Amino acid sequence: MSASRDPAAAPGGLRAEAGTPAPLGATVVDGGVNFAVATAPGRRVVLVLCDPADGAVTAELPFPAEPHHGPHGDVHAMTVRGPHPALSHYGYRVEPGPATVLLDPYARELAGTGPFGTRPAYRSVVPDPEAAAFDWGDDRRPRHPAGDLVLYELHVRGFTRDPSSGVAHPGTYAGLREKLPYLAALGVTAVELLPVFEFDETDNTYAAPGTGEPLPNYWGYNTVAFLAPKAGYAADRGPGGPARELKELVRACHAAGIEVILDVVLNHTAEGDHRGPTLSFRALHEAAYYLLDADGRHRNLTATGNTVNANHPVASAFLLDCLRHWATEYHVDGFRFDMASILTRGTDGAVLEDPPLVRAIATDPVLADLRLIAEASDAAGTEQVGSFPHFGRWSEWNMRYRDTIRRFLLGRPGSTAAFATRLVGSPDLYPGRGAAPSINYVTCHDGFTLADLTAYDHRHNAANGEGGGDGIPGEDSWNHGHEGPTDDPAIRALRARQARNALLLLLTSRGVPMLLAGDEHGRTQGGNNNAYSQDNPTSWLDWSLADAPPGAALLRFTRRCLAFRRAHPVLRRLDHPEGRRRPGAPHPPVSWHGETPDQPDWSAASTLLAVLLHDEAADDTVYLAANTGDAPRTVRAPAPPPGRRWHVFADTAAPPGADAHPPGAEPPCPDPDRLTLPPRATTLLVAHPL
C-alpha cells in the first residue's frame, strides 16, 4: 500500500472519514466525495485514487474497519474531503481478493476507453456535477399508444459508420442524431438500440481467417459497466462527453416523436467464468451476483461463461437501480431485455413462476410508464414466448411470429393456418391480453437480414473465425435458385417480391411491428447470419442502397406501407378480432376467405390466405390476399361495405412505383371478382367511398 492506513490522515491534503452507505457508488457531497461499495461479508476494502491523466495510483485509503452489516453482505462507506477529490479516477481493492483495481459497479462513467476498437484500461470516474448537468428543456417522452408503435432495431455504430452515411461524426450518438429526419420520414416511432452500456469490444477470442487479426465483440453483449454509456460511441469522449451526447440523442429523438428503447444485457457480464477477467462483481460478492453450482463453479446458462444471479437480493437491487438510472438520468422510454428468461431463474438456477425481479421491474413506480420487452428465452433451452411472467406489463419478441411468417412465405405445409393466427395478434399466445404484447418481426440483428433471407439457403460465417459453424443453423430462408448475388433478372425480381411480401404482411399484422435497420432498402451481410464480430461494411449500413434501384424502390414501398398503417385504424387495433358479425355491421371484425368468399382453405397444403379486417367504429375495411404457391391464383374478393368500392393499395407483383400507392390515392380495383394473384404475390385492397 502506498498510503497510510489511518483513515483520518491521507496523502495530498485529503482527509478520510466515515461515510454514508447510501447511495452506493461515488457521490459528490459538500467538500468531498462519498464512496460506498457493497461486498460479501468479511471483506476489507481499500479505495484507490488514480491520476486522471495516466491512471497512476496517487493514494490508497482503507475504508473503516467496521462496515455497515446487512443480511446479505456489507456496505463499506467513506467520505474523502480535500483538494479536487471530484477530479479523481478511482477503484477498489478487496482483501482477500486479487491485486487488481476493481471497477465500481455503480460507476456512471468509465475512463481509459479510447476510440472504438482500442483495448481499454478501465477506471471508474468520480462524477463531476458540472459536467453531468444537462438541460433537458421541455423534453417529454412521446408515449405513443401501443398500436402506433413501429420499432426499428439498430446498432449505434453500424448505423452511420459507413462513409455513405454522410454524417459529420460517423458511428456515434451524434451521427445517429443526424439521421433522425430519415427515420421520421420512414415512419418509425421508436428506435431499439443494441447495447449502449459500456462494453469491451476487444473481448473476443476469435481471429479473422487468413490475417489472424483479432476480431471485435461488435454487438456489445458483454456488459462491463451497467450505469455508464459506451464511450466509444461518442464523438466527444472528454469528461462527461459520452453521457451528454447520448442525452442529446434521446432529447432529439423525443423532439422527432421517436421513443428510445435500450437493449439491456442483465443476464451475464463481461467477466465470463473463472477464466475471464476480474473486473468487479466476481471479487466483490461472487455468490450474490452469479449463479454458482454446489462446487462453486459458474452455471453457464447464457453460453457466455457466467449467469447473473438475478433474483438474489443483492443482484436484484443492483439491476433495478440500473434500470432506474437510465429511466431518470437518460429519459429512455423502455428496455428490451436480452435473454430475459434468465431473469426468471431462482438462486438455484430453476425457473420461477413468480420471479421477484421480473415482478419488481413491472411494479416499480419509477419504471411505471416505460416499455418492457422480453426476449423470452435463454441459451439453456428455456422458451417462454406466450408464458413469460408479464404482470400486466411485459411484451415479448414474438419469435413464433418470426418463424411462422418465414415458413408461410416459403409455402411450407401447415403454414397458412398457422400464420393466420399470427396475423391477428397471436391469440393462442396472449389470450385475454390482446395483441399489444406481441412484438412482430421477420428479422433482427441475430440472423439473416431480409435481403439475405431471400438470397441464401445457408449461413456463410467463415469470416467470424469459428469455422463457419456459428450462428443459427437453419433460418427458413430461400435463395430462389442461386446462392448469393446473381445477375439473373428473374431471380432478382422474385427475391424483391418476397421482400415486399414480408414487409406488407408484417405491417398488416396486429401487434407491434419491428424492422431491422437497413431492411427497408435491401441491406446485405453477404450471408453472414451471426455478424457479432464484424465491425466493417458487412455490418455497416450502406446508405447508397437507398438512392438507387432496387433499394430505392423497396424504401418507397416500405414508407408507403408504414403510411398506410398509420392511416388505417383497423390495422392498429390491438384486440384479437372476433369472427362474429355484429347486428347491422356489413362484416365481422375478421373474416377468412379463399378463392371464393367465406371459403378459406385451412388444409396443410394450402398456400392461399385471404382475410378481411373491418373496424366498425372507424368505418375502415381492408382485404388482404396472399399467394405463397408457385402457380397463379384467381380469387373473388368479398363485397365491400355498402357505398364502398375496393381500391388497390399494394400489389407486390406490380412493377416498382405501382407495387404500393400513397394512402388515399389508391386506384380502383379493376375487377375484384377476378383478382389475379401471380405466384408468390400479395395484394392489399382498401374500401373507399364510391
UniProtKB/TrEMBL annotation:
Transmembrane segments: none annotated. One of its GO terms (molecular function) is hydrolase activity. Residues 652-663 have a biased composition (Low complexity). It comes from the Bacteria. Pfam families: Alpha-amylase, ISOA1-3_C. Keywords: Hydrolase. Residues 1-21, 461-488, 575-601, 652-675 are annotated as: Disordered. Residues 153-565 form the Glycosyl hydrolase family 13 catalytic domain. SUPFAM superfamilies: (Trans)glycosidases (SSF51445), E set domains (SSF81296), Glycosyl hydrolase domain (SSF51011). Belongs to the glycosyl hydrolase 13 family. This is Alpha-amylase family glycosyl hydrolase. It comes from Streptomyces chisholmiae.
